[in-house]
Design a protein that fits this description.
Elements (H helix, E strand, L loop, with lengths): L1 H7 L7 E12 L31 E8 L4 E10 L6 E12 L7 H22 L2 H6 L2
Antiparallel strand pairs: 1-4, 2-3, 3-4
């Protein structure tokens, strides 16, 4: 930040954000095995019971006001190709943004970045289930 500020001399800061893109690999015993996403994620797509209960693809995007940082949490989830056989890979992408009342002093900026980071951790934990948490142990 200091290098950028010294080189560019911005007149204002309009946005502060942290973004973490997590890949969650869910083990499966065979490539055709389906995964119940609700076992792993507290927010996931719900398919009408009148439709087949399998997904090949999905993309879920939520923009939620997040008062603790005075900003917005943008949560994206999607299935991606797995890095190896035996897993289904789901991306959990968390972008926590503050664009109102952004300060200009270094100390205030770093205080907000710390609160954004803490908020991101809270959001991540709110999005996963204990079964997902065990995947990281």
């Amino acid at each position: 930040w200091k290098l950028y500020r010294d080189k560019v001399s911005p007149k204002a800061i309009t946005r502060l954000a942290v973004r973490y893109i997590n890949r969650v690999d869910i083990p499966v015993s065979c490539p055709d095995e389906s995964v119940d996403l609700q076992e792993y994620f507290r927010t996931s797509p719900e398919i009408s019971s009148d439709l087949p209960q399998r997904l090949n693809q999905f993309f879920l995007r939520l923009a939620i006001p997040y008062a603790p940082v005075g900003g917005t949490a943008v949560i994206n989830q999607t299935i991606i190709p797995p890095p190896k056989e035996g897993v289904v890979s789901v991306v959990l992408d968390i972008d926590l943004v503050r664009s109102e009342g952004v300060p200009y002093t270094d100390s205030e900026i770093w205080t907000i970045f710390e609160s954004l980071h803490d908020g991101k951790n809270e959001i991540f934990e709110a999005c996963i289930t204990p079964k997902t948490r065990k995947l990281f142990d």
